[in-house]
Structures are given as structure tokens and as C-alpha cells.
Amino acid sequence: EWDASVGETYALRKELEQVRSELAHTLYQHDAACRVIAKLIKERDDAVAALQEHVKRGAAVPSAAPGAAADRMDVEGGAGI
């Protein structure tokens, strides 16, 4: 009976070690993903702020010149293929 307890304890400790390792790896990946998301959100907010400042100064937002739409490739309609 004592041998069975020792064997079970060893197996449980080994499994605990594996689960801890997996948890540490998963937490590291989650933290990295959160950092990437935060960086992208900051870049987006900076770009929006820069555009708003540009518009506030009275500069027009660049748009396509008249007739430029005919020069673009119609990807969804399949024209030009």
C-alpha cells in the first residue's frame, strides 16, 4: 500500500510539473499577444489623431482624381482578367 502511495505521489508531482510548465508558456504567449494588441491600438490611435489634425488644419483628405476609378482594377467584378 505504501508503495502505491509513493508511486501515485510521484506521478502526480510529475504531472503537476508539466502543467506548471504549460501554464507558464501559455501566460507568456498571452502577455506577448496583449503587448502586440496594445501596440497596434496605439499606432491606430496615433494615425487617427494625425489625420484629424491634418483635417483640422484645413488640408483636404487625399482622394482619387476624377476618372481615377476607371484606372483601378476591378477585383471583385472580375473585369480586366
Write the layout of secondary structure elements.
Elements: H1 2-56, H2 68-71
- Element-level helix/strand string: HH
Helix-strand category: mainly alpha
Mean pLDDT: 84
Give a short account of the largest sheet: none
Helix proportion range = over 70%
Tertiary shape: rod-shaped
Distance N terminus to C terminus? 77 Å
Folded structure, characterized:
The chain contains 2 helices and no strands. The model has no long low-confidence stretch (mean pLDDT 84). Helix content is 73%, strand content 0%.
Question: Which terms summarize this structure?
Answer:
81 residues; 73% helix; mainly alpha; rod-shaped
Short description:
The protein is an all-alpha fold and 81 residues long. Helices cover 73% and strands 0% of the residues.
